[in-house]
Each structure stands twice: as C-alpha cells, then as structure tokens.
Amino acid sequence: MTETPTAFPAGTILGYPRIGRRRELKRAVEAHWAGTLDESGLEQTAAELRRATRERLAALGLGRDDSSIPESFSYYDQVLDVAAAVGALPERFAHLRAADGTVGLGAYFTAARGAGELAPLELTKWFDTNYHYLVPEIGPETIFALSTDRFSRQVAEARADGFVTRPVVVGPVTLLALAKATDAAPEGFRPLDRLADVLPVYVELLASLRAAGAEWVQLDEPALVSESLPIPAAELAAAAARAYAVLGGAADRPEILVAAPYAQLSTEAWAALAGAPVEALAVDLTRGTVPAATHGLAAKVLVGGVVDGRNVWRGDQEAAWQKLEDLADLGARAVSAATSTSLQHVPHDVSDETELDPRLVSWLAFADQKVGQVVTLAQGLVEGHAAIAHRLAEASVALADRRSAPGVRDGAVRVRAAALAAGARDRGDYETRLAAQETALDLPVLPTTTIGSFPQTPDIRRVRGQHDRGEISTAEYEQLLRLEITAVVGLQEELGLDVLVHGEAERNDMVQYFAENLDGFAVTRNGWVQSYGSRATRPSILWGDVSRPAPITVRWSQFAQSLTDRPVKGMLTGPVTILAWSFVRDDQPLAETADQVALALRDEIADLEEAGIGIVQVDEPALRELLPLKAADQPAYLDWSVGSFRLATAGAATSTQVHTHLCYSEFAVVIDAIAALDADVTSIEAARSRGEVITDIADSGFSHGVGPGVYDIHSPRVPSVAEVADLLRRAVDELPLRQVWVNPDCGLKTRAYPETVASLQNVVEATRLVREGIEVSV
C-alpha cells in the first residue's frame, strides 16, 4: 500500500460473466474432464478468454490502467477458488495436493465434482440468486496456508498484456460464514471461530497480489448484508471489524475495496466498515438505500451500485444518477458509479439477440449494455450531469414506452386474478386426500421414482436443433420424441421403478419450455448465465401479463401413460421457480406476476387430469432461493410464494396426487413454508449433505409424503448400494414409514445414460434391501 491513496476509477463493475460469450469455458472444461483436452490446453483456452474479456471491457469504455476492470475469472466457483487458495479443502482431498502442498486443477475439480468414493463439497444457492456455490468444510483441524498462486498469476498475466486489473476475492468473513463444520469438529464449533487463523493467509495473499502488480483488490463480503445466515448480523459486523483491522493494517498490500452486494448492509456492518482502515466501500443501491453518514467516510471512496447487476432491464438512469448524488452528500473522498453486483448473473450482450422484437430489445440491458451505463454515469461524475443528460433521457423514453406497450397489461388476465374466490388456494384435508390416493394408486411401501428429466443425449439436442433450424419437419421431430419417450418408459419399467416419468425429451429447459408456450414471455438465443460449474441456463424474459393460450404438456404425458400400467407423473414447473429462473418484469409486485403464472398452471393441471394423469409434479426448486435476505421482508415473500403454489394446485381432485420438488438450499429456515405448500409428496435434495435435512423434517412434525434424495445427480459418481441404503435407512429411522419416498436429488437431464442406469439400479436394489429389512423387523 502506498502512503498516498491511489485514485479509484469514476466507474467500474464488480464482476463480469466468465463462461464466455458462446460458453467457451464450459466446452473447454468439459473436454478436460472427458480427457480430450489436457491441462495446458485448458489453461490456454482460459487465458484467451480472460484476454478477450479485458479487451471487450476496454472497448466498452473501462480503463486499461486504472483498476476499473475486475479480474473475476473462475474455472468453477469463486468460493471454491478462495477455499483452495487458503488451503481449506477437507482432509479427504489431501492426497491430491502437489508435493509442495499446492492445490492444482485436479484437486480443485475433484472437490467440486467428487470422484469414486470421494464425495464432493456440498452445493447450495449463493444468497438469493440462482447461482450455486460450493460449501467449504472447515474445522479446528483445518490447516490454513496459501496454496495456489492462481490469483496473482492472473494479475501478472493482465499486466503483461498492458492492463492494470483489480482481482476479486471472496472476503474472509463471507468465506467462513458460508462454510460448514467438518465432521470431525466438536459440537458447537463454527468455522467463523477460525477467523484469526485465516487472516494471516489473506495478508500473504494480498502481498502476492501487490507483488504481481495489483493496485487495488476487491474483497466481496455479501455475508454482511444477509439476515438468513445462522450467525447474527451484529456478530458478523464485529468479525468484519476485526478482519479489516488486520487486512487494512497490513503494510504490503494493494488498496482495498470491500464490496457488500445483494442487499442493504446492516447498520452494524456499515459502521464497522466505515471505521476500518480500507480505502473504498461498494454498496448495493438497487436493493438497498443510501446509508447514513458515519465516522470514517472522509478518507474513503464510496462505490455506488446503481446499475442493477441481476436483471436485464434498461432501468431508470436518472434515478441512478440521483442515488450517486445522494451518496456524494455523505462526504466521502470520492464517489464512483458501479453495478450493484457482479454481472455474472446476466447474459453477455443483448445485441446478440437478433430474433427478439426490437421494441423489447430497446427496454433491455445485458452485461455489455450495463457496462455502458456505468461508463455513462462515470462520465457524469467527471464532467457533470449536462454531459450525459441526453443519454439519461433516452433511457427514460424507453422506460415510458415499456409501460404503455401492448401486452404489458392484459385486461382479461387481470380480471380473472381479481375475481379469485376465497377458497381458491385451499385443497381440503390431507388425510382424506391420502386415503383416496392410496386407493387410486396402490403403491408399495417406499415407492421409487425420479424427479422428472432423463439424460438429454447429444442426439436429442442435435434433433431439436435440426427442427429449430427447419432441417426436419415437425412430424419427423415428434416421431423421434415418441421413440425417445418409449425407450425411457421401457427403461424405467426394466429398472423396476414404481412411478414413472416421460423423461422430458421435448424440453430444452424446465422454465424456457413453459416460457415458449405462455404469453408474456420472450426467450433468447445466446442469453446464457452460469448456474454452477460448467452448467449454464438461458433465463427467459417475463415482460408482460401471463396467460396460457393452449395446453402445454398434456399430449406427451398422455402418450407416456399409454405405454405402461404404472402411473406416470405429469411434470410442471411451479410459479415461484418460473419467476426465479426468468428475468421478471420489475413494474409490479412479484406476487401479482406469480398468481398469473399459477392460474395458467392450474388450467394445465385440469387438462392433465382430464387426460387420465393421476400424479402431477409441480417443481419448486427455487422456493428457498428467492427468500429475501432481510428478515422483515421474509413473511410477505413466504405468504405470496406459498399462495401462488396453492393457487396452481388447489383445483386438483382429491384422488390426484400432487408432488413438488425442492433442491440445493438450506431448507430448515423454510420448513414451515414447505409444509404450507400442502403438496401430497415433496422430494428434496439430501444426498450431498448426507441426509442432514431429514432431521429437520422429522423435528418439524412434517406429516405429508417426503422423498429425501438418495442419489446426488450433480456429481458423475455412481453411489453404491450401501451408500443409498444408509441414506434411506436414516430416513426410515427418523420418519414414519408411510411418508418416505425414494428418489434422486434432482432431474437427470445433465447426466449420461451409463452412470444414470447404474445409479438407478443401485437405488432400486437399496430400496429392495431396506424394504426386506423393514418386513423382517415388523
């Protein structure tokens, strides 16, 4: 750190999409996993992608030499990056380290994905986003040590190319607050207890970044905005004060920007950071307000996150400018314009979407357009409002056009929603439903099923692409789908599953498929957003009032049911998940939009029942994901989210069994809401966390059917019969037998058939063994 503060740029972003404009990183990483690209080839592809990103950001107006370009690349996950850097990988991966103790890509990817008997790190949602991070495992026995030079090498790489970039690293408080205790840790231990031990490694890391040429470093501390973590906000703030007293006091370091995205900083955390010896603070002003003036700001740069990093709307740029002016009133050394979060949550460039309606495009801003907005606001900070007034006015015109466009408001949709009867969300007594369903379905104890999708093979994707391009007719495409569905149903019968699915071969994505068939949505061609690791989704754009012009899923479910005497589930995506995994209109409350989607799904369920489908699954894997980070906002969210699910399902007949599915979240905090959904059966992720949620379910008194996942589909591992049986026995030991279902954690779309078949064979065999054990014990 220099004695004279280094100037901070007038505009910056907190991060940028890292998978590549055409998912180049995904393809390279998966080729490496498949053994067709060696490590040096992967490193070369990644370096080329990083160089292309820096050049693109410079072309958009960010500076080459002022630290405005963030160095935010990751091969898999930013939390895993820093856990590996400080040596915080569990002991089971210790033998994968190099002889000098460093963590190479082999150990890194094994921690992410698992291998053989090595279970991967747990995967869960990153705050209230659809991004999944890997949960570090830290205990009293964890030995912290700087274990990779990857961060500093990327800084040096940029320097060699003529760029002074700002490395982005997850901060120590967030790293420990998001970690879980190792199995060896004593009861009551928390990873945050190791803060003093990890800080010297961060000091060493900062020194290495400075030596590589970094003038600024960005330490991300989103834990300081959350009230959904099990650690009180005041304790997190106190930890931040201790951490940044140490890091800020280090003699050999870059200047420090502490970023707190995703919501409002707690009062205690704001005061702690304002008083800490760091040079800049970034606050989210799209999901938070300008904080109060406090001691310590005169020496700091305040970075205002006024461009929303989480949606795709062009937004109100005059309002963004006003927030920057309000921030300047706090008396800081300087003010900078920025995105509210990393832009990893949005696609690269709206100009890639040549098939979207030009009018809709005029309302949108993807990552590159948001960089442009930041650059414009930065120009205003330097040259004054008059210099950018015309650009701000253009944004206001687009905003007004969006409000008045046809389809944004549909009178018939709004009349129907306003006329809902008082009992529209009530399905009646569960025990009555259960008796009717047991008679109708006649399923064995511990019924086996899957979540819905089966592997989407390269052939399926190729044929879908041919149909989209007009290279084969709709009749040819649908005949191929019928053959695929026939094969999937036959495979499930051969495996011995009790409740079957049609495999969803016709669906490119569980949300996009519905968006393509509902009014009020648009879909993109290249709007990819990283979900986790090498996986990416294309969130649809929900721009107007939602309605269903025709049945969506009925004929494929009906066809599958015609092939078998066993029950086939109809498969729908729930209203909350459709909202969570889309870019949703921001001009009305989410509750209103959710009810519109729910009514469309309610009609779909009625048509499925009429077609003879006796089980309908309405997936809500994102229920926990959208839970607000602030406790005061959570009751209202849980009320409308549960209400929209019940609105979608309450019209089902008593004998129709309604399932739902939830995955990859911390469920204990929403267990009451899960019960309030009133689904007859809930399947839930449990395998990667080794069944932790089962105790929460049992302790809550949950009385409906439940399928704790026994097969982690986010890893290529094939679980052994013994591993599945152990998880299943835990469920049977803690829950009433009649409640327990057997299923994987999630859909099988991303897996290959060999591992899928082997895993499901083991699931069925484990179920047989546990059933026999139960029969003997009874």
Structure description:
It is a single chain. This protein is α/β, with parallel strands linked by helices and 778 residues long. Helix content is 41%, strand content 12%. It is built from 26 helices and 22 strands. The strands form 6 sheets. An 8-stranded parallel β-sheet has the order 1-12-11-10-9-8-6-2. Helix 9 (267-274) links the parallel strand 9 and strand 10 (280-284). Helix 21 runs parallel beside helix 22 (634-649). It is globular, with a radius of gyration of 26 Å. The mean pLDDT is 95.
Topology readout:
Elements: E1 11-12, H1 24-34, H2 39-59, E2 70-71, H3 78-85, H4 105-113, E3 123-125, E4 132-134, E5 137-138, H5 150-160, E6 166-170, H6 172-178, E7 180-181, H7 195-212, E8 216-220, H8 233-248, E9 255-260, H9 267-274, E10 280-284, E11 301-307, H10 317-328, E12 334-339, H11 358-361, H12 367-383, H13 389-404, H14 411-418, H15 430-441, H16 458-468, H17 474-495, H18 512-515, E13 519-522, E14 529-532, E15 535-537, E16 540-547, H19 554-562, E17 569-573, H20 575-580, E18 582-584, H21 590-610, E19 615-619, H22 634-649, E20 657-662, H23 671-676, E21 681-684, H24 692-700, E22 705-708, H25 721-734, H26 753-777
The coarse silhouette is globular
Please work out how many helical segments DSSP would assign.
Answer: 26
Query: Helical percent range?
Result: 40-55%
Q: What is the structural class?
A: alpha/beta
- What is the residue-mean pLDDT, rounded to a whole number? 95
- Give the percentage of residues in beta strands: 5-15%
Query: What does the largest sheet look like?
Result: 8 strands, parallel
Largest sheet, spatial ordering of strands = 1-12-11-10-9-8-6-2
Query: What's the total count of β strands?
Result: 22
Q: Rg from C-alpha positions?
A: 26 Å
Low-pLDDT sequence parts: none
> What separation lies between the terminal Cα atoms?
71 Å
